[in-house]
TrEMBL record:
PROSITE patterns: CADHERIN_1 (PS00232), CADHERIN_2 (PS50268)
Organism: Ovis aries (Sheep)
InterPro entries: Cadherin, Cadherin-like_dom, Cadherin-like_sf, Cadherin_CS, Cadherin_pro_dom
Main location: membrane
Superkingdom of the source species: Eukaryota
Membrane topology field: Lipid-anchor; GPI-anchor
tRNA processing listed as a keyword: no
CDD domains assigned to the protein according to its UniProt record, in alphabetical order: Cadherin_repeat (cd11304)
Residues annotated as domain Cadherin: 147-245, 246-363, 364-477, 478-585, 584-697
Compartments, record wording: Cell membrane; Cytoplasm
The protein's role, per its UniProt record: Cadherins are calcium-dependent cell adhesion proteins. They preferentially interact with themselves in a homophilic manner in connecting cells; cadherins may thus contribute to the sorting of heterogeneous cell types. May act as a negative regulator of neural cell growth.
Pfam families hit by this protein: Cadherin (PF00028), Cadherin_pro (PF08758)
Protein name in UniProt: Cadherin-13
Amino acid sequence: MQPTTPLVLCVLLSQVLLLTSAEDLDCTPGFQQKVFRIDQPAEFIEDQAILNLTFSDCKGNDKLHYEVSSPYFKVNNDGSLVALRNITAVGKTLFVHARTPHAEDMAELVIVGGKDIQGSLQDIFKFARTSPVPRQKRSIVVSPILIPENQRQPFPRDVGKVVDSDRPEGSKFRLTGKGVDQEPKGIFRINENTGSVSVTRNLDRETIATYQLFVETVDVNGRTLEGPVPLEVIVIDQNDNRPIFREGPYIGHVMEGSPTGTTVMRMTAFDADDPATDNALLRYNIRQQTPDKPSPNMFYIDPEKGDIVTVVSPALLDRETLENPKYELIIEAQDMAGLDVGLTGTATATIMIDDKNDHSPKFTKKEFQATVEEGAVGVIVNLTVEDKDDPTTGAWRAAYTIINGNPGQSFEIHTNPQTNEGMLSVVKPLDYEISAFHTLLIKVENEDPLVPDVSYGPSSTATVHITVLDVNESPVFYPDPMMVTKQENISVGSVLLTVNATDPDSLQRQTIRYSVYKDPAGWLNINPINGTVDTTAVLDRESPFVHNSVYTALFLAIDSGNPPATGTGTLLITLEDVNDNAPFIYPTVAEVCDDAKNLSVVILGATDKDLHPNTDPFKFEIHKQTVPDKVWKISKINNTHALVSLLQNLNKANYHLPIMVTDSGKPPMTNITDLRVQVCSCKNSKVDCNAAGAPHFSAAAALLLPLFSLARL
């Protein structure tokens, strides 16, 4: 006889006590729903209801008491769960314990996105071991369900079963979770009466490897009686994915002459199947090598690691003797540990045999010839070399050096980057008369150093014989420029100097003739035979052709070669100043009012084309022979200015006042200039000079302008 469960005893006791209420007959003590799920909010707000809990002890809930696993929450009398203050993080789960003298139960609130908290459930609630209230015991029995992926029809098919040995009559099974009522929905379902779990379509382990479901029993009203209990569904892997090389292109490099067993590169593939099974256990091999010379097995791949290594002797890895320094390998990866039943995937590995500098450059011949005209510059010969190394590397690129025969640094050599030839150039003009022949010794090396067992030999040096061709060179003036200093105003026909030009062609007997090339003022003449330069006119330092007291002329020296060659020389004549220019005054016209109280007439200035000391200080005077005394007065202001004033008012008329100005030269020079003074009528701010027979000027302006000029001195 099976033991009577507490639920059966409760029902029997209800019958004995004749409790015939429909509510009592249908009532199951505890929470109507035992598991709740909510998303973690940004913040739980104080006194704001989170959810409503419904608990019944089937006896009226007398002395109902709630406990919450977090001290930051409480359950109100109406069953609403609220926060005691604003709080952000409380963990992944909250537990609510409800009890009365007749029953107790626990509800679970799963917070999606919350973090774990420490402490056991017993520590949280501190339940008394001597509590007289009987506690509910779970009786749902579940085992993990294993389902192979890629199953074929028919569907649905049973895959497992849930057992509840203590399930009340009339209750049903309910299945929830991702794959049932959450996306992807409808994959699994449960027979609510028998507990059989079935799958409705084939599964893909590489999409979802496990499903976490929940099983519970509910009454006819859908209220939870037991559970939920976790049910794990595990998808069993099938070998349905080929290995894939995902990291290409695969390019490796190995130096020529590398020892046997040198690692070139590693190639690994990916298999989406279960890495814990042979379905994803890969093995590698080389399916094809192109080219297959000098050996069809130049390389080997580690079947487990995927490392590609060389397996031929260093002598066979000679880049210069290979048909092609590039090899392509078809690499195969096979799962199931390489068994024939395994799936395969392939990729191409490109292996480059890199060059090392194991060949020195060699000149194509021991001697090179070149000719160059004297005085010319530029490339005169290209030196050719051979090198068996890779043209794209510094092991092939040549570097040339002149090691002998270039004491004057007249030659330079550079590498042509396209042809690798040495371009020998003349950078300083050569002189046939000094040396008609030159011999250079040139060596060639690589940019990269040679490997230790290779050295540069005799073929890495060459001799260049250079012949200089004589040309008719232009005569050269010495010195150039030629400079001479003379006083201006020297007499016509005076000899300034004799120019000298020499012919660089010293081995040729040639004569030189001279001529004037540029003489802007037409002052000079040159003897065509002896080069004597004399004057044909008076030299004037104040001429517009003279700049900063220097006059420039150009002369030609022409030899008798065929064709003749011409050289140019420059003559700079520095002209010393003499006092040959008299000073002059400005302005030469002035106005004054006939009733002016200020009898100042005008401020005069003087200037001189000569240089100091033949200029200021100037002496200003009134030429008294023609001017009555006691009418005009002139007073010195400074070395270059003087003030003309009246001693008394004059009648309206035009007056001519002779002003004499003298410079400080030795001997001095004097100039007399008429100053025309207009005495005008000035009444009611109107100036009338018409009667004076002169243009109309403001008397005030005539006085202010000279005074302003004086202020600037």
